[in-house]
Design brief:
By secondary structure, the protein is of the alpha/beta class. 41% of the residues lie in helices and 18% in strands. It folds into 3 domains: 3-53, lambda repressor-like DNA-binding domains (434 Repressor (Amino-terminal Domain), Orthogonal Bundle), CATH 1.10.260.40; 67-166 and 301-332, Response regulator (Rossmann fold, 3-Layer(aba) Sandwich), CATH 3.40.50.2300; 168-299, Response regulator (Rossmann fold). It is built from 12 helices and 12 strands. 44% of the residues are buried.
């Protein structure tokens, strides 16, 4: 039988259920009372037969297009955007939706971003995902509030849109704990200079974790520079030139850690024998390819993209109210990714 001729009646017959039940399952009707095993049977039958719903008919019936807009900053220049897009796309496809993507810039004006949102609205998307390049507070275009929307890796200054962000403080705690568990008590932090949540929260996590371990977190050495390779190099040279040189460094991100590797090499320090280093981000091109491989904390970009998409679709389909989750962002864990840059301190 050609898949072009497969209809909802064929799926119903194969699954041994009524046409109404098949319709309820495949259209995710919120009020329908269908047992989980029946839903699984219907979906399995539809997949086996190659049944594909008539999207035009669905759109006319539900007043939905099955398209989600994704406004993402700097797609071409940051690996983070790719992971967010992948998570969002795979979650959308599982639910029968597709993504329409528009690239913008982190430095784009409010007027420019308003125009981008309007472009998605004119294409009649059912909802919009708004993803930023890094965790920060953002002023949002007013027209974003006219349609179900979820923020990814950012929080609205008006606290009026559902958002998902990484657990920056807990991620820092995880990184510092890895160094403490290896036996280090002299730990320094290479921090960012930008006034963003990650700068403050990672420093807070660094100091608090040391204090809870019985160390003086308040006076632990901290050097701040731009969060790039050169900044990490310069900050590491300063912190490693101290008389009470740290035996371990926690770095704001993997790029700064890369700079710290260079500084350590110039000072004749071997990683991890003389100096242990933990990064943050888990940028594969950096962390997995440094020698030795960089132990780091992963930002949950894929997970944030997937979570935001699930929430957005639930709102579109009337299964949840985004207004109830707008006041406070959802926070996702940042797990440790162990590699080979951490060891016991020399003589430990």
């Amino acid at each position: 039988m050609s898949t072009k001729n497969i209809g909802i009646k064929d799926v119903a017959q194969a699954a041994g259920v009524s046409v109404t039940t098949v319709s309820h399952v495949l259209n995710d009707v919120a009020y329908a009372r269908v047992r989980p095993e029946t839903k699984e049977k219907v979906r399995a039958a539809a997949e086996q037969l190659g049944y594909e719903p008539n999207r035009l008919a669905q759109a006319l019936r539900t007043q939905r297009t099955g398209m989600l807009g994704l406004l993402s900053e700097d797609i071409a220049t940051t690996p983070h955007a790719g992971r967010i897009i992948l998570g969002a796309d795979e979650a959308a496809r599982r639910r029968g939706y597709n993504l329409m993507i528009i690239n913008t810039s982190a430095s784009a004006s409010l007027e420019s971003r308003t125009t981008d949102v309007q472009a998605l609205l004119e294409r009649q998307v059912d909802g919009i995902l708004y993803a930023t390049m890094y965790h920060r507070n953002v002023e949002l275009p007013a027209n974003l509030g006219t349609i179900p929307s979820v923020l990814v890796d950012s929080v609205s200054t008006g606290k009026n849109i559902t958002a998902v962000v990484p657990d920056e403080e807990r991620g820092a705690r995880t990184a510092v704990t890895a160094l403490l568990d290896a036996g280090h008590t002299k730990i320094g932090f290479l921090n960012n200079t930008d006034d963003v949540p990650a700068t403050r929260l990672r420093l807070q996590g660094f100091r608090a974790t040391l204090a809870e371990a019985g160390l003086d977190g308040g006076t632990a050495p901290v050097e701040a520079e731009a969060s790039e390779v050169q900044g990490g190099y310069e900050a590491a040279l300063r912190i490693l030139d101290r008389a009470d040189r740290p035996t371990a460094l926690f770095c704001y991100n993997d790029r700064m850690a890369m700079g710290a590797y260079r500084a350590a090499a110039e000072l004749g320090l071997t990683i991890p024998d003389d100096l242990s280093i933990v990064g943050f981000d888990d940028q594969q091109l950096i962390a997995a390819n440094l020698h030795p491989g960089l132990t780091t904390v992963a930002l949950p970009h894929y997970e944030m993209g997937a979570w935001a998409t699930e929430q957005l679709i639930d709102a579109i389909e009337g299964k949840t109210d985004l207004g109830q989750t707008a006041a406070k962002p959802t926070i996702l864990d940042c797990p440790l990714v162990p590699r080979n840059s951490v060891a016991q301190p020399s003589g430990g």
